[in-house]
């Protein structure tokens, strides 16, 4: 190719011409192709490039299949005796000649300094050859370049020089556009202020990977390859890393080049096998990069939140000798002022008709004393809560359960003074930890410790309790209180104690359909017969709801702790719970009347597995099943599928020989479509969808597009070494459309959280808001670091120019354009003003305010810890600048 540069002659945007000629055009001979890989193969006929080199004899080939056929001839040559001599190997064209050899038009070699310069004691300079060979886009035209191409073929630079991925900002983009264009008149496009800058104004270093910023069908990074053509397919044209790329490639999607997606990119089975082979071999293993600290300082966000994480309860629990179950026993004593009916913590109308008697209170005290140390017995006896306070706590739990989607204890058949003291102590603990009074909350955790220690003794004393409903319900309450306590020790114990309950339920066949026979009252059923059928139905419905409650708890724990769930969605073959109206019936007669007032009950209610196969059953059967609970179960089942996707993605990366990278990509699209279908189904429910279910659905959607493990490591959850290890993965995520998908769902999490009542954001819902803030923080920190390295740009420019895209509103056209094309500046609403994501501290303050508005002393420990962590993460960015 001549050194004289060419001026681009942009093609017409006529749609008929594009459809007939193909979208990819050769810059040499003007031929069009429908597939980018066909264009790549054709361009090599002009450049004479043979990038596929045999590692035995150094012979080059233009196509990988020819190399494979040639390599088969070396299969039996184990000792490589037929290795070509170095003199023969030097006959192939080198990727870049030095200045001395190029000016003398003599052969150079790959080693630098080259042999000729070493022998003649010449300065072997090859760094600026690229710039000399770069064309100037303001002189000749493409026809002139094509006409002179054959005449200068012998003197043209090496193919890697012609198609080098190391481009200067605008000049070299012109040459790339000449080689491949989508038939769009770029001159007529509306450009953003950044895009209309001159080549002198364009920044030389963004620090952001130029590869596929907009998730487009093809990347404009100097290599004109579609995303599915891997880097190793053409080694001499491989995409450079962020730290190696000195120029800026214009945002191709902003020019309108992606307005038409009718590309014919159909691949055959052979294409998929070849592409996946190179895809799996092109990803280097994670190796700590020593250049990270020098290329990017602390402003890049590596491990900025390490100190914040170490102060929070999300860090690993380090047991100490003084840590034990009896630490909380001092909290079993409450002040006398709280033991009177006048100061009862419960002021609403009681949900249960029975009031807890002093005799029952003494049975609860006896249970606690059995697991207490002798030295504390007298104090516990003197100050243990009275019957009125314990009754108020039990009543408070049942009042909460009336609004809870996953209620699993049947209120009409629960009689306080005839129940086991273990379940009463567990219910009192569950009611106490929901109190706004810190002293009452401490009492709840102390009661829960006593119940947890009592259960193993109860099981060992009589093994029949393994199948007992009330004991299993007590166990479920205990692990739920512990896992969301905000205390590292209690969380770890609750996590480890989850397995036995699940095992007992599974071994009792409670996950199977066969153990739940259909119970239907007949018209002539009255008296004891009807009462017996009702209580039989209540017991098996209670077991069903308990199993689904444990399933929800297990799925939420898996997402909160980033571990695999214990229960598989495929194991959940039991039928879904019946409608909430039947569950809330206060008597056998009312239960019978509700059943006969509706259509005859189905002989076979669907299971979770059935819903995953066909989500439309949720709307078709919404008068028969508990739709709100079923919707919650369904989205938690989808969370298990997302968890599986990330595990498969993990083993299919880094040069996997057995797992196809294209499969994981298509799996992500399937899951995204499934979650979209779930949202559509929920919108068709008669009663709508509860805000907590919407929030969890958005959390699952967000986790589909972000690696929670890597983002937390990047933020500093473990140490800076681990943060450095995942640094480039975080950069790749920020530069891809996955990050924009994730933060768009994070915005919807904030929106759903705002719609919930005060104090409702506890447990996993609070974790979900924290995950949303982590997505914002990661996106903001890296984007801000990249922006600050751009000369002439500032934070105010980023937040003040262009379209503001609010992520916490309805997902409209602006949000879709931002996700797909990276158009606009993402922001959240805050009291009528916009808070842009380029401001990490402000974003974290907004997320913290969304999480809770109560004073710290009235806020649960988990919420306090998450709020402090978000505050620290926001503040550490300013300190690290």
TrEMBL record:
UniProt xrefs under Pfam families: Fungal_trans, zf-C2H2, Zn_clus
Keyword hit for S-adenosyl-L-methionine: no
UniProt keyword list: DNA-binding, Membrane, Metal-binding, Nucleus, Transcription, Transcription regulation, Transmembrane, Transmembrane helix, Zinc, Zinc-finger
Region (Disordered): 69-91
Domain of life (superkingdom): Eukaryota
Signal sequence region: none
Domain C2H2-type: 24-51, 52-79
All copies of domain Zn(2)-C6 fungal-type, residue ranges: 97-126
Transmembrane segment boundaries: 759-779
Organism of derivation: Penicillium salamii
Protein name: Uncharacterized protein
Cytoplasm recorded as keyword: no
InterPro entries attached to this UniProt entry: XnlR_reg_dom, Zn2-C6_fun-type_DNA-bd_sf, Zn2Cys6_DnaBD, Znf_C2H2_sf, Znf_C2H2_type
GO BP term, pick one: DNA-templated transcription
GO molecular function: DNA binding; DNA-binding transcription factor activity, RNA polymerase II-specific; zinc ion binding
């Amino acid at each position: 190719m001549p050194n004289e540069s060419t001026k681009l002659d942009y093609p017409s945007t006529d749609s008929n011409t594009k459809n007939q000629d193909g979208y990819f055009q050769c810059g040499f001979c003007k031929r069009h192709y429908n597939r980018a890989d066909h264009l790549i193969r054709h361009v090599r006929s002009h450049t004479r490039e043979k990038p596929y080199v045999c590692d035995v004899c150094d012979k080059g080939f233009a196509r990988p299949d020819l190399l494979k056929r040639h390599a088969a001839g070396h299969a039996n040559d184990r000792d490589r005796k037929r290795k070509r001599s170095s003199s023969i190997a030097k006959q192939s064209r080198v990727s870049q000649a030095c200045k001395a050899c190029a000016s003398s038009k003599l052969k150079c070699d790959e080693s630098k300094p080259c042999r000729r310069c070493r022998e003649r004691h010449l300065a072997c300079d090859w760094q600026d050859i690229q710039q000399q060979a770069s064309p100037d886009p303001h002189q000749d035209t493409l026809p002139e370049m094509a006409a002179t191409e054959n005449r200068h073929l012998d003197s043209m630079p090496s193919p890697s020089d012609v198609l080098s991925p190391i481009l200067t900002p605008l000049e070299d983009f012109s040459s790339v556009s000449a080689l491949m264009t989508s038939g769009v008149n770029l001159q007529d496009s509306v450009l953003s202020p950044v895009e209309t800058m001159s080549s002198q104004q364009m920044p030389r270093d963004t620090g952001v990977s130029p590869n596929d910023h907009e998730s487009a069908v093809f990347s404009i990074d100097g290599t004109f390859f579609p995303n599915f053509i891997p880097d190793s397919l053409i080694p001499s044209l491989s995409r450079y890393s962020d730290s190696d790329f000195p120029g800026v490639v214009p945002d191709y999607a902003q020019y309108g080049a992606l307005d038409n997606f009718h590309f014919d990119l159909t691949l055959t089975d052979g294409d998929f096998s070849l592409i996946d082979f190179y895809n799996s071999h092109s990803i280097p293993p994670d190796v700590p990069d020593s250049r990270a600290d020098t290329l990017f300082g602390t402003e890049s966000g590596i491990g900025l939140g390490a100190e914040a994480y170490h102060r929070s309860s999300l860090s690993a629990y380090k047991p100490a000798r003084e840590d034990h179950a009896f630490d909380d026993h001092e909290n079993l004593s409450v002040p006398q002022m709280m033991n009177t009916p006048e100061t009862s913590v419960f002021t609403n109308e009681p949900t249960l008709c029975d009031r807890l008697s002093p005799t029952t209170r003494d049975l609860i005290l006896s249970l606690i004393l059995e697991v207490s140390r002798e030295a504390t017995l007298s104090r516990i006896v003197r100050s243990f809560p009275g019957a009125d306070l314990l009754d108020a706590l039990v009543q408070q739990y049942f009042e909460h359960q009336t609004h809870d989607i996953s209620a699993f204890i049947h209120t009409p058949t629960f009689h306080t003074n005839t129940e086991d003291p273990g379940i009463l102590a567990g219910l009192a603990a569950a009611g106490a930890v929901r109190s706004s009074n810190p002293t009452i909350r401490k009492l709840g955790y102390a009661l829960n410790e006593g119940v947890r220690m009592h259960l193993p003794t109860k099981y060992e004393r009589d093994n029949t309790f393994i199948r007992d409903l009330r004991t299993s319900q007590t166990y479920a309450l205990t692990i739920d209180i512990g896992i969301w306590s905000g205390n590292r020790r209690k969380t770890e114990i609750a996590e480890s104690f989850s397995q036995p309950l699940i095992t007992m339920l599974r071994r009792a066949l409670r996950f199977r359909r066969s153990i739940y026979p259909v119970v239907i009252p007949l018209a002539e059923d009255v008296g004891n017969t009807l009462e017996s059928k009702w209580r039989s139905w209540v017991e098996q419905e209670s077991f069903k709801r308990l199993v689904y409650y444990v399933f929800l708890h297990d799925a939420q724990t898996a997402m909160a702790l980033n571990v695999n769930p214990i229960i598989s969605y495929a194991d959940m073959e039991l039928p879904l719970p019946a409608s909430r109206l039947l569950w809330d019936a206060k008597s056998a007669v009312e239960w019978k009347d509700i059943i006969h007032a509706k259509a005859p009950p189905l002989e076979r209610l669907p299971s979770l597995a059935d819903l995953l196969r066909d989500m439309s059953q949720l709307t078709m059967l919404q008068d028969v099943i508990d739709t709100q609970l079923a919707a919650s179960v369904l989205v938690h089942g989808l969370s298990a599928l997302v968890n599986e996707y990330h595990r498969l993605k993990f083993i299919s990366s880094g040069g996997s020989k057995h797992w196809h990278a294209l499969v994981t990509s298509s799996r992500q699209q399937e899951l995204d479509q499934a979650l979209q279908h779930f949202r559509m189904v929920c919108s068709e429910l008669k009663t709508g969808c509860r805000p907590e279910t919407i929030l969890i659905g958005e959390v699952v959607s967000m986790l589909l597009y972000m690696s929670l493990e890597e983002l937390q490591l990047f933020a500093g959850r473990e140490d800076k070494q681990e943060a450095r290890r995942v640094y480039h993965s975080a950069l790749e995520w920020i530069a891809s459309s996955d990050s924009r998908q994730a933060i768009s769902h994070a915005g919807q999490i904030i929106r759903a959280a705002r719609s919930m009542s005060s104090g409702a954001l506890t447990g996993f819902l609070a974790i979900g808001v924290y995950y949303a803030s982590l997505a914002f923080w990661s996106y903001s920190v890296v984007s801000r670091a990249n922006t600050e390295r751009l000369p002439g740009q500032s934070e105010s420019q980023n937040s003040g120019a262009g379209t503001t895209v609010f992520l916490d509103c309805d997902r409209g056209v602006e949000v879709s354009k931002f996700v797909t094309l990276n158009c606009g500046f993402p922001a959240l609403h805050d009291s009528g003003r916009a808070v842009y994501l380029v401001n990490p501290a402000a974003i974290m303050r907004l997320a913290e305010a969304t999480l809770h508005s109560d004073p710290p002393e009235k806020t649960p420990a988990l919420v306090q810890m998450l709020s402090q962590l978000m505050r620290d993460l926001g503040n550490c960015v300013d300190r690290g600048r």
